[in-house]
Amino acid sequence: MKVDEQTQQKIKQLSLLEQNLQSTALQKQGxxxxxxxxxxxxxxxxxxKSGYKIVAxxxxxxxxxxxxxxxxxxxxxxxLRIKSLEKxxxxxxxxxxxxxxxxxxxxxxxx
Length: 111
What we know:
Radius of gyration: 23 Å
CATH class: Mainly Alpha
Distance between the termini: 8 Å
Number of helices: 2
Shape: rod-shaped
């Protein structure tokens, strides 16, 4: 069966959308790991008066409140990034699903 040019273009678009979906999922996964690490660090600082952070490959002592504040800010940023990637992922999935339906419809009409 010969596939027309329009259908081939849609198949290529679908392939690109799937690659973008994979990339977005990997980014989201990376941020989720960072978020878990940040939450764990916040938990570790709960009963502490001081802690350490790494700045330019140097371990620096700092008071726990300052570290908690920095970690809470980092946590907020990570949560926003994850939420943004989830929205992007959802839009990509919707586009891919719609494109897949179009391609399947065109292929079935050719038979």
